[in-house]
Amino acid sequence: MSAAPARSSSWHASPWLLLAAAVLSEVTASLSLKAALDHPVLYLVVAAGYGTSFTLLSVVLRRGMPLGVAYGVWSACGVALTAVLSTAIFGEAMTPLKGVGIALVIAGVLAVELGAQQADPAAPVGRALPPEEVTSP
Questions:
Q1: What is the pLDDT of residues 40-80, one digit of tens each?
Q2: CB atoms within 10 A of CB 69
Q3: Looking at residue 122, what DSSP letter applies?
């Protein structure tokens, strides 16, 4: 049998994975904000969700993702997911115009992402910095 490859003692999540977690935290907080109107204890989830989201977003920026890309993806995904989930959870209306708006938000984020890649094709967007270049938030 061959030995398993040695693993690094410190694990560094991909900036994209951290950004996805930031989006999910923000969406959870936003949905909880509506639910907290009837169940005030959920304001704790709101505060924790937004705090976690902003913390993760700052780590993503520290890892080298451009602000325009990180914030664009974070906000657009948050808007789209919140709109879709509020329809499913709270029964809010999903109109054709709302659907077009969500599609335009997503298209705008894609345009920002592609523009960032064109600005510096040698530097991959969202690359993780080597551990020695990462400082804690």
A1: 999 999 999 999 999 999 999 999 999 988 998 999 999 99
A2: 22
A3: T
